[in-house]
Write a structure and sequence with these properties.
heterodimer; A: 148 residues; four-stranded parallel beta sheet; 4 strands; B: alpha/beta; five-stranded mixed beta sheet; three-stranded antiparallel beta sheet; 8 strands; 33% helix
Chain lengths: 148, 326
Amino acid sequence: MQVENKKEFQPKIVAFCCNWCSYAGADLAGSSRLAYPADVKIIRVPCSCRVNPMFILRAFQRGADGVIMCGCHPGDCHYTTGNYYARRRMTLLFSMLDYLGVEHGRTRVEWVSAAEGVKFSTVMNEFVEKIYSLGENVRLEDLRCKES
Amino acid sequence: MQRELMNRAKELLIDETVVRVLGWKKGDLGYNHEPAYFDSPEELEENFVYDAFCGANLSKYMIEAGKQEGKTLVFLKPCDTYSFNQLLKEHRIKRENTYIIGVGCRGNLDIDKIKAAGIKGIESVDADGDMLKVKTVYGEKEMPFEEALLERCLACKGKTHMVYDELIGAGEKEEAGPKGNRFDRVSELESLSPEERFAFWRSELSKCIRCNACRNACPACSCLKCVFDSNQFDSNQKANADTFEEQMFHIIRAFHVAGRCTDCGECSRVCPQGIPLHLLNRKFIKDINTLYGEYQAGEDTDSLAPLTNYTFEDAEPGIVAERGRK
């Protein structure tokens, strides 16, 4: 008898959601009974601008296979301009990760408003599917943080 | 020119315009000059040196010098003045506490390139004219000046000083050194496949010994407390504990100076392992230039830096994936 050792790949996905739009959007998705995969772990931040590039790298270190950041649509930021700065920062960071050879599908930014529960669930479904196709994150992993 | 600089520095010390001089002194060997303070004309006479091996960018040392009492005289090469301006902009240096002598520069030499050309037992290097005369224990050798230039000098920003009180020796050879396109190597890497890029950076970054020289020499990297020194932050301070640490350190180091990096090339010059760190900084500069408009940090002291500015029409981060598909 063969013992199946290999566990099926179960991605871990970290979603940084801003308090004012995307987190409420996720809430709406929930209360509207729209399904999105349980692989997505939401971390609430006060504003998308709060997301330090280090957060993204740290998430990958601790075993995330994909990181997505959601914020208010440009022009709608609760703090007026936060997401504009976040946009430039993330563009540069993602470009750098791509330059270092990390698959660019593992990182994503989406603008989700509090009224867009449907968008939240479709984005998450799409993103999880993408991560399934990319498989486990090995290029930005920290072996010390892996469960053996 | 060394004599001229020394005499002028002595004058300024004697008439008490300045109380100390920040310059370069001779190292143990003929080609490893190091930054140094001089408090008296005698010290200057004894140790002061200026030649093509004075690569160190003295702007960074002005942060410390500026905290002391009295004016400091500092010698800056054209590209160093960009870093100085950038520090002025960030209020790290007081302009009124400094007296800047802009020095002429032909380009700095890379001793490793001379060694790589097969010249051994180097005692001293004389850079007169277009040929280098290298005195070695095996007799005198020659090699072309241009072939021994530091990496950063191959894409010289020009010979104009952005900020100074007086100029000495500048303007003799106005034309900038070899004007290569500084983004050539970056574009080359971008055109590789992700696998090849990953392999390239893995092999480069795995050489890192986390000596922090790149951080300490960088004029833009001047936080009072670095994230990598924090004990709240569970990163390994030392050595190659894990491949992740290496990537993390270098991504964050480059990111923290994005938009502020003047491309002075100190990081690559000081790296004892020869990691081409400027390629990380230049990637950010290239992205900023293409996405948000041409920007040269340190050119002025009042413009908004790319990462503290925005427009409504900025590209979405998804552009990275779109470019990747091409």
